[in-house]
Structure formats: structure tokens, C-alpha cells
């Protein structure tokens, strides 16, 4: 793995994602994970998962049950958003659900 970046999946609602998210995260709400598995990189690639509360537990459990390694399960909080903003890694809007995750699979196929 080394310095290779990990895929970041934000499993909060799309509305919450649009209010702010990690600049390199894609939006796949926890309820949509089963139908959108094809958008994730192969299971050998570790993931960083963002969500809040029960959604974080559900997303992590689901992904693990499907063979994914969840390298980090990160609770989305206002202090986290502030930290990301200070680091230049906070993005506050997404034009559409398709744009919110469109490049994730492509990134992993060409990396």
C-alpha cells in the first residue's frame, strides 16, 4: 500500500454530503451501498468510511461482510469538518449524485 491514497466513501445522506465533505470522498449513503457496490474499488483496496452514528456502524459492518477492509471508520463531526477546512480538504457542495462519486471507480482502475 505505501503512500497510495485510499478510497474515501461518505455514507451519510446525500443532503448531509452536500453540506460538506472530505474533498476526495464520494457519496454512497448507507442505504444505497448494496445497489452501488459496483462503484467501489476492488475489495483488496482498503477504504476510509465517513458517516454519523448508527450509519457508520452499519456501513462498516456491511462493507466488512462483503470482504472490504475498512482501514478507518470516521465519525463525521463539526470539529472534523473544521479540521478538514483548515487543511484545505473540505468541500461544501456537490452538483449531483453522479458527480459526487463518478470518478472513484475510474481513479482505482487507472492507478
Automatic annotation (TrEMBL):
Residues 9-82 form the Rhodanese domain. This is Rhodanese domain-containing protein. It comes from Thiothrix lacustris. The lineage of its organism: Bacteria, Pseudomonadati, Pseudomonadota, Gammaproteobacteria, Thiotrichales.
